[in-house]
Design brief:
5-stranded antiparallel sheet; alpha+beta
């Protein structure tokens, strides 16, 4: 499967020889178990995408379980390769996405809702979106994507935690702040690393 000399490269993954495929390639356990949300934002994701479920290759679908500690935030981010549909299973989430601008002098518009168990919300492909647990209890959601690998790009990580770093003059001008503020924010990423580094690590407890 990982030998480029013996398989065809399709849609970002090596296409498996049908003779070597087993039922396990279409199976993934663990979405009944909470993820390990011991990170700065308090969110964990357990993925069922092409990286953890090889049988999804070329099918254009994937899923994940998201666990939110009390007052946790799935920070503003994009899924560059997919639209997302989210179903709340437990708890209460404040969710939203921001539109792109379509012309001069047009403002980005926020669409947001408070979601309860059984509620569904859609995040269009490529748009910045977020989820925030507004309660002092845990929350759980299940997501579906129309891509085998939706991608996950946290805006703050991309801007302040990239390697190599974006020049602070650029960020200072973009955000209209002093460079010392940019340097301080970048130093936080140098110290703690990227947020959500427990994403897709099930809780062993």
């Amino acid at each position: 499967m990982n030998d480029p000399n013996s398989h065809v490269f399709v849609n970002g993954r090596f296409y498996m020889n049908p003779e070597h495929v087993t039922a396990d390639d279409f199976f993934r356990s663990g979405l009944n178990m909470p993820g390990n949300a011991s990170n700065q934002l308090g969110v964990a994701g357990v993925q069922a995408n092409v990286n953890t479920l090889p049988g999804l290759n070329t099918l254009g679908i994937s899923s994940s379980r998201l666990d939110y500690a009390p007052y946790a935030l799935n920070a503003p981010h994009t899924n560059p390769r997919a639209s997302e549909i989210l179903v709340v299973v437990e708890g209460t989430l404040y969710v939203g996405f921001i539109t792109s601008t379509s012309g001069p002098n047009m403002k980005n518009k926020l669409f947001s809702k408070i979601l309860h168990p059984g509620d569904v919300f859609v995040f269009p492909i490529g748009l910045i979106h977020f989820q925030f647990n507004v309660r002092k209890t845990n929350a759980v959601a299940i997501t579906r994507f129309n891509s085998q690998n939706a991608g996950y790009n946290i805006i703050a990580n991309a801007l302040f935690g990239s390697h190599p770093s974006i020049n602070d003059d650029i960020l200072a001008k973009a955000f209209q702040v002093d460079k010392k503020i940019v340097d301080h924010i970048q130093s936080q990423y140098d110290r703690v690393g990227l947020l959500l580094d427990n994403y897709d690590k099930p809780n062993s407890n």
